[in-house]
């Protein structure tokens, strides 16, 4: 394992939680292992590991980009991560309001729907 991979796993676990990472690792196969390594080293070991901006700001940017690009599948995971990064519900709302203005109301509306559902699930847990 490279240093970037080890750093990436550390950051990934701190943001997403051990349970999530353990489930993802259990699903990894020989087929997608190179892709998983790329994500761990690139996204988590380089971008998320950078101290250029705070984890809170990274959460807000990530959620806004996911919504703006219509990558809704990962929004619940990153809403859950916001509890670890310090991004509040208000921060998330602000990010999605930016999405509404700069990327479109339908995408922001769907992202807000997913956020509300995820926050409700988190409150029950």
Described by strand count, sense and barrel closure, the largest sheet is: none
Mean of the pLDDT scores?
Answer: 97
Please indicate the percent range of residues in DSSP E strands (runs of 2 or more).
under 5%
Q: What is the overall shape?
A: globular
**From the alpha-carbon coordinates, what is the Rg to the nearest angstrom?**
15 Å
Number of strands: 0
Q: Which structural category do the helix and sheet elements fall into?
A: mainly alpha
Helix and strand run = HHHHHHH
Domain Carboxymuconolactone decarboxylase-like: 35-117
InterPro entries: 4CMD/NDH-1_regulator, AhpD-like, CMD-like, Decarb_PcaC
Organism: Actibacterium pelagium
Pfam family, one: CMD
Structure explained in plain terms:
There is one protein chain. This protein is an all-alpha fold. It is 78% helix and 0% strand. Helix 1 crosses helix 2 (18-27) and helix 4 (55-68) crosses helix 7. The longest helix is centred in the C-terminal third of the chain and has 20 residues, at 105-124. The N and C termini lie far apart (35 Å). Residues 35-117 form the Carboxymuconolactone decarboxylase-like domain.
List keywords for this structure.
0% strand, CMD-like, 7 helices, mainly alpha, globular, 4-carboxymuconolactone decarboxylase, peroxiredoxin activity, 125 residues, single chain, 78% helix
């Amino acid at each position: 394992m490279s240093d970037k991979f080890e750093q990436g796993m550390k950051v990934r676990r701190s943001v997403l939680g051990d349970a999530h990472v353990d489930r993802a690792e259990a699903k990894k196969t020989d087929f997608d292992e190179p892709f998983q390594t790329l994500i761990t080293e690139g996204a988590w070991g380089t971008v998320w590991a950078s101290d250029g901006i705070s984890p809170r700001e990274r959460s807000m940017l990530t959620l806004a980009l996911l919504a703006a690009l219509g990558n809704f599948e990962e929004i619940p995971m990153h809403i859950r991560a916001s509890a670890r990064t310090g991004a509040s519900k208000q921060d998330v709302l602000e990010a999605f309001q930016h999405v509404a203005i700069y990327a479109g109301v339908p995408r922001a509306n769907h992202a807000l729907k997913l956020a509300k559902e995820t926050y409700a699930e988190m409150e029950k847990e």
